[in-house]
Every structure is written in structure tokens, then in C-alpha cells.
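[job 0417] fold request received: DNA-binding CsgD family transcriptional regulator
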Amino acid sequence: MTATTPSALDLAVEINRVTAGTGGSSCPLDELWAPIRVVVPFEAAWLGVFDTGRNRYQTLTAVGHDAVNRAYLESSDFNEQVEAFGLFRRTRPLCLRDVPVPPAEIPSWAQRWWPAGYREGIGVPLVARDGRHLGVMTMFTDSPARPSDAARDVIGIIAPMISAAIDPMTTIAGLAALVGDARAGSVVGRNGTVCRLPGMPVHPLLTQNSRVVLTALAKLTQRRIHTAFLWPDPRGRDDYLRITAIACPPQAPNYFVALILVSPPGDLLGLTHRELEVLGFVIDGRTNQSIAHALFITERTVAAHMEHIRAKLDAPTRTVAAVRSLHLALYLPHQLTDVAE
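[job 0417] inference complete; emitting C-alpha cells
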């Protein structure tokens, strides 16, 4: 046991009280500062999440900073300073006194923080369990003696708890759990980057700009937060996978737009590949004439397929068949069909 243990435990209990049961962007982050201030009596503090699309930080909560300072902390200049100091290569928070450069030679300190009356500062890297760069927490004090080394170590101990609270994957993992039979999954960022979903394998169909990802994103409109459809399994023409796409919550700090999961197809109710093709066109609002032209078959053949489809879905009408198939994720997007132009 070290002398820091009681302080660390007390602070951990308070941080857990603030963040427990919330997760993601719903955490009341402003409440974090009061217990932290007991350990580090700061004059100003800031917590920002890293925006991978803009390559800079976005403010989640701040105290003691005016709009000008907050704008700087969200700038590319601040991100460059974080990288120059190697903050994310360290295993513990970084104080000003740890930097092998005098404050007068650090532009932000010489021009901004020192004139403002700050004499020491601490930068805390916030990293997910799987190593993802989540954000940074900074605190500035008016005394070179604060924070002490012991206080710095305490902040390092509770940093993973704060990381978990701001990690958008916390909420996304909860969404993924709703699809109980999912076997693989990925998350798509605002810039189209496909990221691994922690704790779940990556599927070869879920790559950046793949047809699966592009089709899923196209179907997640502003009025649709969930979609599911069938996709041919690369192992064989008549084998399918079920693709489920869920729109991610838009609130900060979520820089992800969609969760895409791969599952077994479930019960296809005996529908053949051709019947699934026809059904996909019906769901998309195509007429029998249009379907016949697209599939190079006659309208009479389309009508026969529809009779079989309605029987297998126990649907009295074409519309009911379409609705039931969507509910059962028996939708094969027509983009997968070799259609006539």
C-alpha cells in the first residue's frame, strides 16, 4: 500500500458515483470536477474527446476557461503540442515539470498559460482498454507545487474510469448486445473509416467502401435508425448472412455513425433465391412489369413467384408480404441482383 491509496479510493468512489450506469455521452461530466478538485486544486480544467475526422479535440466539459482558451484547446495547434510531448506514449499523466523544455520555450505556456497566472499543469491521456485514443484531460494550477507527484499518481489511477465514461463504444457495445446472434461486427466513423468493434471478430465483408457497408449506410436515413437485410455468403450462392445496421447516437463524443453486425440468416421460410430477389424488388416498390424487365423473366413468372412468396409468408396481400419480410429481415437488396439497365 502507498500513501496515495486512501485518496485514490475516495476519488474512485466519487467518480464511480458520477459515471455509474450512464456511459457514453449521457454521463453528467460536469460533476466530475468537484471530486477531482479535492485532489488537484486547479484554477481551470478541460476535458476533450479526440475527433478522428477533424484530427483535433472537441470539448466535453470545461471549468475556468473562457471561449478563447477553449477554442485553442480545440485547435490543431493544441493537438500538435499533445503529440510533440508524447502524451499518449506515456503510462501516466504528464506535468509541466516533466517536460524537458523550459515553459518560456513552449509557445502555449509563454503566450497563453503563464500570462494567465498558471504555474503548473497536468495532461492526462484518456485511452480505451483496447488502446484507442479517446481524449485528453488538462488541469492548470497557480502554484508550481500543485499537483504533487502523489496527486498526479491518483489522477492516473482514476483515468481509466473517466475513459470508460466518455468512450462511445460503451453505448455501441450495448446496442450490439441487442442482436444476440451476431457473430461479427464493425463500427463506421463519420469519415467512412471502418473500425473494429471491441470484443467481436471482424468479418471480411465489413471493409471500408465495401458493398455491404455502402448499402447499410444508404439505408440508414434520418428517419431510419435500424435496418436489416440478407447478403449472399461468399461461401455459396444460396447461403446468406443477415446484416443488421444500427445508427449510432449523434451526441458528442460519438464520432461513429453506424454499427454493422453480421449474423446467421435465421429461418428463410423456404424462400428460394429467385423468390428473395422478387421480394426485394417488391419491398423497393417495383411493379411486376419492372421486376420482370430487371430479372429477364415474364410478368406471369413474377406473379407466380409472388403467389409462392405470399403462401410461405402466410400473407394475404403483396403489401403484407413486404411488411412481414422486412420484419423478419428477409430482404435481399436489389443492388445485389444482376438487373437489366
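[job 0417] notes: The chain has a mean pLDDT of 89. The chain has twelve helices and ten strands.
[job 0417] exit 0
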